[in-house]
Specification:
The structure is a single chain. The chain is α+β, with helices and mostly antiparallel strands. The chain has one domain. It contains six helices and 13 strands. The strands form three sheets. Strands 4-5-6-10-9-8-7 form a seven-stranded antiparallel beta sheet. A hairpin with a 5-residue loop joins strand 5 (about 85-90) and strand 6 (about 95-105).
Length: about 290
């Protein structure tokens, strides 16, 4: 999966017209109504959203949740590779949202929680960049380099959340942030990816982290319910950070910079790059993002 993601990077320019909007041909000169592409999905706006059969999340007022199957449809609509998802949540405006994917890796021991050396981990990520960039050059693609931390790796011992954000720079000089949170459970990891404009990250983080407090593993699946004999992951916290880019490439498909706006249909430009994340500015309001 990793190699497929790395070697499938491409620049795609797509035009999407929702199938449900096939009305009679308009009279010439008539204004065309804007179509909300999100209206075709079965959003939940209250209660708890089921994240596959692993966990649930509280849906705050003013937010909407979508199950995994429909999340996969949205991701493909945005130009990403077909992939399995376990759900997504975001504010009603969808100017940012969170994608969930569960990895059945087994119990990840947190005995490295006091040894998350940011400088050492950054050096490891930058070393990985060399091989990944060589693969991009062979495909005729621009390079992507990890230039520093937006948020240094940190582990919350009470919630068992591991999170960090890296600043990535493309060969064209554009910089973006890839922000990830790993919610550890008894049988694996809930990978959560925040998708937003880089410039809005610091303002969004408090709301994002507040939403994550509503995520709960189902009974029997919490980190605290680990029992001797359960499957244990072959890696620890440091490997989760150092391998974060690889996981994002393998599991989140071609997440890249997306400029999205409305004009009779949705036009989106995807600059695909492994683990760069997805930046969206106003999916519904039509405010253009800086690609």
């Amino acid at each position: 999966m990793v190699s497929k993601a790395f070697h499938s990077l491409l620049f795609a320019s797509l035009t999407f017209t929702p199938a449900f909007a096939q009305d009679a041909a308009p009279v010439p000169g008539d204004a065309q109504p804007e179509v909300d592409p999100m209206a075709q999905f079965n959003w939940e706006t209250s209660g708890r959203g089921e994240i596959s059969n692993h966990a649930t999340i509280a849906i705050p007022e003013g937010f909407r949740f979508l199950n995994g199957q429909e999340t996969a449809k949205i991701m493909q609509m945005f130009g990403n590779l077909p992939e399995d998802y376990d759900g997504m949540i975001g504010p009603d405006e969808l100017d940012w949202f969170v994608v969930f994917q569960f990895e059945d890796s087994g119990y990840v021991k947190d005995d490295e929680k006091d040894d998350l050396d940011a400088d050492e981990l950054l050096e490891s990520l930058q070393e990985q960049d060399k091989a990944q960039n060589e693969a991009r050059r062979q495909e005729g693609l621009g390079t992507l380099d990890t230039v520093g931390w937006a948020v240094k790796p940190n582990y919350n011992e009470s919630t068992h959340n591991l999170e960090w954000g890296v600043i990535l720079e493309s060969s064209s000089g554009n910089r973006n942030v890839n922000f990830l949170t790993k919610v550890l459970g008894r049988h694996g990891i809930m990978h959560t990816t925040l998708l937003c404009d880089t410039e809005d990250l610091q303002n969004i983080l408090p709301a994002y982290q507040n939403v994550l407090t509503g995520l709960e593993y189902n009974s029997g699946n919490t980190y605290a319910e680990y029992e001797e004999g359960d499957k244990v992951a072959e890696y620890g916290l440091k490997a989760l950070v150092a391998g974060g880019a690889i996981f994002a490439a393998a599991k989140l498909g071609l997440f890249g910079t997306i400029a999205l706006w409305f004009k009779k249909a949705i036009k989106l430009i995807v600059v695909a790059a492994a683990a760069i994340g997805l930046w969206i500015k106003r999916l519904v309001t039509g405010k253009k993002s800086d690609a």
